[in-house]
Amino acid sequence: MQPSQTYYDVLGVTRCADADLIEKAYRVTAKKYHPDRCSGARERRLFELATAAYETLGDVRLRRLYDRTLLSLDHPRRPRAGVDLCFVLTLRFDQAARGGVYPVRRMANIGPSVVEVLIPPAVEDGAMLYLPEMGLPSPNGGPPGQLVVLVAVEPDSRFRREGLDLYTDVNVPLETALNGGKVKVTTLEGQVEVTVPPGTNGGTRLCSRSLGLKTDQGRYGDLFAIVRLQLPREIREAAKEAASEGRTVSLNGLLDSNPQESETSDIYEGVKQELEAIGAEQEKRQAELDNWHVELVELYRQVEAMREELESGREISGLHPNG
User: What is the secondary structure of 107-159 as a DSSP string?
Assistant: First the structure.
């Protein structure tokens, strides 16, 4: 019982071979079967197979994916099965989200050079799809190998994925965060309006149900918009000016800068009131803590006095046992 050939077998190296050894093995094999030196169909096929092996094993990420494939294929098969072919299908993030039918190119002279592969919606990066008997034919009548499609999903700067849920950032003006309002959030299907509650903090997650990824089984993920507070231009410019001069700037100082535009002034006033309210609340809590501290000190003194009275009583009792 021999396992199916792998790309390592094609190049004549072991699975622990390093990158330099793989490159040297490929150069030797490619030179031996190069079409400029050999005109036979068998030699041309071996050259194409060696090239496909090097393109996969010579890339660190693709080799890691291919090794994962081999681990899942390490099981007994019939003698002398054909070589399993590995193809990396690169998809954009939105293509992987929607799924669909995509062409996959096989090697020449082994039947159809291009086959269509159905990619399920919400496919993950590194997913492996198996097409039985679409690899190379067996040299002695055994079963053909498989065509293993490794899905590589390109990242999208707009989205981050966790399972079927999507996360995206949304810039929210400071005034909208304070007073509430609507903002537009990007989804896979376009833009939608999302409500921002009054008093929203930066980092708040605004959830849009069922606007994440969806599978062909009818499961839906959610879309979470992460609030990124957008400071008014006057605050940004004042902060940049302070940084360029090597000095620090306080938010209270910015709020007291008397901006010219009335609308911006209202924003500053709102932020200032919020800060004053927070400061008053902190002072109130500090006063409560101070009161508790005084009470605890007094209670401690009472306990100490009681302990001294008890110890004094035991001493008297020892001097006058019949008293």
Answer: -TTSS-SEEEEEEPTTPPTT-EEEETT-SPPPTTS-----EEEEEEEPP-TT-
